Amino acid sequence: MKLTQLATGLLLAGVMTGSALAADKIVIAHRGASGYLPEHTLPAKAMALRAGGRITLSRIW
């Protein structure tokens, strides 16, 4: 009985902590959406922002 209560408590604590941490995350799109478009291009950056990225990073050569 105590083991079940402990497991349930730990599970609930993990679920609550995970949702609280997820709300504080900031999505950063390094090089834009480089998995879909050529990296460091304006279309890749626009796609990353549309997909939920809040910040895009680039290198200027």
TrEMBL record:
Gene Ontology biological-process entries: lipid metabolic process
Annotated keywords: Hydrolase, Signal
Lineage: Bacteria, Pseudomonadati, Pseudomonadota, Gammaproteobacteria, Enterobacterales
Signal peptide: 1-22
Occurrences of domain GP-PDE (ranges): 25-61
Coiled-coil ranges from the UniProt annotation: none
Name the UniProt record assigns to this protein: Glycerophosphoryl diester phosphodiesterase
GO-annotated molecular function: glycerophosphodiester phosphodiesterase activity
EC numbers on record: 3.1.4.46
Keyword NAD on entry: no
Enzyme type, top EC level: hydrolase
InterPro entries: GP_PDE_dom, PLC-like_Pdiesterase_TIM-brl
Keyword Iron: no
Entry superkingdom: Bacteria
Organism of provenance: Enterobacter cancerogenus
